[in-house]
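Lecture 7 notes: from sequence to structure.
We start with the chain below.
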Amino acid sequence: MLDFKRVDSYMAKVDKSIKTTFKPVSDQIKVGLDLGTAYIVLVALDEENNPVATEMQYASVLRDGVVVDYSGANRIVRELKKKLDDRIGIETEKCAIAMPAGTDGSKRTHMYVAEAAGLRVTNILDEPSAANSIYQIENGVVVDVGGGTTGLAIIKKGKVVQIEDEPTGGTHLSLVLAGNYHIDFEEAEKIKMDYSRHKEILPVLKPCIEKIASIIKKYCDPKKTDTIYLCGGTCCLTGIEDIIEKETGIQTVKPKNPFLVTPAGIAMNCILDGTEEIY
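Predicted structure tokens for the same chain:
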């Protein structure tokens, strides 16, 4: 079972590192680059995995895990890296990246984006497996609901035995809100992130959340799956876990702040002593 106290304490410090810069134990910095559909995030940890600093920016340069605006992605990652380096006082050099399952063909593009910003990629993961570096569960399913896709990793005895990923994520929820309230997409995003309005918008978003649940149920047998562990920005929506649990028939849980779980897990997997680049 998820150690909520440990995860919530760690993620609270990662969240705090957005505005507060923590002193690293050495000049060896591990960076996780998360090129998301809604946000691009850089998380910096020290060699003992202590949070140091986090930079992020809203962006629409990817679609379903695929870079559709290469120059825009390059510019944003360069800017975020400069901010990160200036805050830490150390020039970061190495990073890990993660991909939605089934988008292996985009690995090279993601690597080019990192390299254009001056980062050498030393490890590549799938997103739900990266999240489990934070959760450290032995058995269950980690589900990462991102902006464009829902990805999952089925874990048995501490090892990932299956990964899957299908379209439907936070972007789709925002589109539903925009249509329902007759507002533009950006305004819908703001409403979705406003915790005070979650109770109001949950009934509107329920069909879309049920679609996410159907993706999970497609790969998870309730008789063989003990628990679903949620992460990703979309899972910040209050009550999303209750709808997924009802639809799948599987206990569904999430930490207090699931947003930065995946990028922090990516950073944990940055290999500092790697000498060869991954191709």
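Points to note: Residues 166 and 215 are 7 Å apart (CA to CA). The chain has nine helices and twelve strands.
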